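Duplicate of #3305? Posting structure anyway:
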């Protein structure tokens, strides 16, 4: 019965029983999750917990995109990693942890970061993209490619005790370039981070994506969700499309 596209298998029902009763989700929403492919770019402090929550929710397939090897200073926040993976490919460590956690989802690894050379192909293979990259250049690239291919993008970012999530649906909402026409001044590659903060922001992003995929109401379209973990304060800032945005104005 597992191959039937529009039904859950008995095994699926057994695993996801506790969330099938979530109002608005049900079997239909669960089937949508199972039939979806989500790409997560960078599986560090943000993308790791995000991918874990998508795996827990029963996403059909994860494409994990991340270059580089595991270093000691990754281990305060990158919860898919393990100390015995030091020096090895981070994306392999993430895939192994996720496969042990949920062996019933498909996981594909790409051991490189988003570049001009691979962006179009990577986005084409996904139904939804989760952006957890620290560099603005990568975030802009993902935004541009998702707008071009009209794929939803959940942009997640954090700094110190704060973080933000922007759900982007090309043609319906402002895109990242509407908000940031250029890389903001003073943006730093390296930033202070506690793992619990990045995981919290990651799970806000995961929930926005899960709602979008499963057809639940309440997706924060044209809103920037901002969370300050020091004050434990959440704010939703209305954002608007820039009619002159060089990325999305034609949509
Ligand atoms: Zn735009």
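Output from current build:
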């Amino acid at each position: 019965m597992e191959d039937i596209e529009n039904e859950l298998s008995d095994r699926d029902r057994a695993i996801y029983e506790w969330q099938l009763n979530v109002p608005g989700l049900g079997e239909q929403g669960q089937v949508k999750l199972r039939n979806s492919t989500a790409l997560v770019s960078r599986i560090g402090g943000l993308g790791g917990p995000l991918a874990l929550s998508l795996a827990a929710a029963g996403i059909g397939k994860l494409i994990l995109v991340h270059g580089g090897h595991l270093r000691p200073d990754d281990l305060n926040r990158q919860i898919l990693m393990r100390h015995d993976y030091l020096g090895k490919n981070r994306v392999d460590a993430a895939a192994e942890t996720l496969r042990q956690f949920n062996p019933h989802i498909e996981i594909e690894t790409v051991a490189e970061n988003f570049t001009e050379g691979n962006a179009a192909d990577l986005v084409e293979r996904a139904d939804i993209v989760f952006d957890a990259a620290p560099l603005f250049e990568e975030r802009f690239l993902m935004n541009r490619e998702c707008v071009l291919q009209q794929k939803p993008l959940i942009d997640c970012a954090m700094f110190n005790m704060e973080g933000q999530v922007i759900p982007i649906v090309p043609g319906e909402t402002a895109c990242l370039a509407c908000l940031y026409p250029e890389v903001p001044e003073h943006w730093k590659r390296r930033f202070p981070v506690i793992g619990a903060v990045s995981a919290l922001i990651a799970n806000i992003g995961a929930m926005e994506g899960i709602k979008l995929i499963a057809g639940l109401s309440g997706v924060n379209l044209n809103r920037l969700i901002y969370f300050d973990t020091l004050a434990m304060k959440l704010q939703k800032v209305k954002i608007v499309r820039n009619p002159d945005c060089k990325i999305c104005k034609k949509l």
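Confirmed duplicate; merging threads. The pocket of zinc ion is lined by residues 174-175, 177-178, 242, 245, 247-248 (CB under 6 Å). The longest strand covers residues 153-159.
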